[in-house]
Amino acid sequence: MIVRNLLFVLSFCALIAACAxxxxxxxxxxxxxxxxxxxxxxxxxxFPFRIGDLAPAHKPxxxxxxxxxxxxxxxLERQIKTAGRRVQIPELNAYVESVSCRVAGPxxxxxxxxxxxxxxxxxxxxxxxxxxxxxxxxxxxxxxAQLAAVIGHEAGHYLRRHTMKRIRDILDKSNSLVFVQLVxxxxxxxxxxDVAMLMTLxxxxxxxxxxxxxxxxxxxxxxxxxGYDPEEAWKIWEAITKEKEADKEFEAPSFFFASHxxxxxxxxxxxxxxxxxxxxxxxxxxxxxFLKAIRPIRRHLLRDELHQRKxxxxxxxxxxxxEDGDNVAELHFFRGEMHRIRNQEGxxxxxxxxxxxxxxxxxxxxxxxxxxVGLAHLKLGHRTKARKAFDDYLRNxxxxxxxxxxxxxxxxxxK
Amino acid sequence: MQKGSNFxxxxxxxxxxxxxxxxxxxxxxxxxxxxxxxxxxxRRIVVLTPDVELSILHAGGLQExxxxxTELAKKHIAxxxxxxxxxxxxxxxxxxxxxxxxxxxxxxxxxxxxHQAVGHAVLFHQWEGHPLALPTKAGTFEWTMGPEIRYxxxxxxxxxxxxxxxxxxxxxxxxxxxxxFGALLGIGIPGGAQVGFASLVDLETGDVVWFNRLLRPEGxxxxxxxxxxxxxxxxxxxPK
Lengths: 415, 240
What we know:
Number of strands of chain A: 4
Low-confidence stretches of chain B: 1-10
Oligomer: heterodimer
Shape of chain B: globular
Structural class of chain A: mainly alpha
Largest sheet of chain A: 4 strands, mixed
Largest interface: A-B, 45 and 38 residues
Mean pLDDT of chain B: 85
Mean pLDDT of chain A: 83
Largest sheet of chain B: 8 strands, mixed
Number of helices of chain A: 17
Order of helices and strands of chain A: HEHHHEEEHHHHHHHHHHHHH
Distance between the termini of chain A: 65 Å
């Protein structure tokens, strides 16, 4: 049974290097593989990273473990191509691809970014170059340079073959662990077997913590090479930390399973690295390009976040976006939606306040706002106001798919 | 950290192995028909890229897929099918082998995914004695992919589609040692195993007309004779 549990956890973690740092010596520690140093490397002598140990257009030798892993992951990638949760909006996909190509440079063809519809902040790299970026991540980076930081981090996992090394590590450790368990079981000490399993898992986590630090280093290096301002990388973590703190349900991950360095540590390390790396001549944050690409879908992303019903973090997310200042009307609308959906003491009145604020703020709230105004009034028993809001909704939204239903509601209000 | 497919895949592997531990039995197929239509123009089969993976079973129980073995097995399986259908007067319109072709056609890709779901559902819920067997399935065999499947009929000009799914593993030397020491201590540790299924779908109705599973701690797809033996067992009572 112990073996089964272990396997369960291992196979769960094995195939993907997820994303997420302290002093620089920790960065260097991870650099044990053979290094290739291409000509024209912009990293200075004291920067602890260079481009990875994979040549562009790398394909594994069929005799290797790596080839076996690719076989499985390529199968998975074919499925992901037509997965329902993959975001397929040609302009947006093309934009994300262009950023990824700029970051990956000669490895552009090796890294394929799939935008997946999922709230929350995450991205992941598979060993064959398939990268997943969660749609929720687009709400949590505020410009193209920050998006480039995430893509650079994941590209680092690929270039340094982190997942491959991790699978190798897991294979080796589980292979020796099972003998320990057998001996212990033979000696009649089953409890110690569990301890052995925990130790193994802890050492696997430590292994991946080092990988994360290394990937952060690559992120800074690739950003600088591509002409992005490396100072943007640490700023992501400032926002993420605030959001996490607002999540009451969030519990610090146990010591054993923490695969990612703590955000504060990470922020400090990223700041140091940004100072160390050779800066591009002209730095670019690409804020306008980023906003232009995200604007058309931002309300769908916000809706997905809201449906998680994590109201605390959602509020913090909105705070940051308001501070950022793009289409504030839409953000006030979602603040109203948050109150309406939470529906605790005083929330409905607050919702109406925010809808009103949205109406008078710069930018444009979605047409569905009138329906929300109507629903809030309806719950508060304001029949006349509800009626008026639903009328406004139908007028502003003549092709609303729920038009018939709303007309039905209006009929009920007329009685 | 992403969940989803990898997680499901490992769950799947456990369920299959659980069934193996419970039964350790060989082929007993489920079928709706014993024969294909006599009209030679209605005996056309498309084989939709056998999903085959051969792997090394490591001491710790993890499986490492092996590309060379897998390629070898695919060749042997293709050769066996070509021979078998020729002898049985069944026209094989296509034996697709290039996995890169999948995914280019979105509609076909979704149908393949659908069969993956249906096939695994049959595997888990149809057989009595399986931990996940459904009592409502006892004594009946009613599974269908629905008429949407006609798309494949038009695309390939075939009357039936054969789906094959095989996972075949071989104990590493470490695993073999573990099994040996385990036996000394009186602990039974499983070695490599063949698990899989074959499913024949009527491309007019979408009904699964024949389904067989493979579930045994032996067999070897790496050699011609071993592959012939395995495929004979898997396709033993496929409608003729």
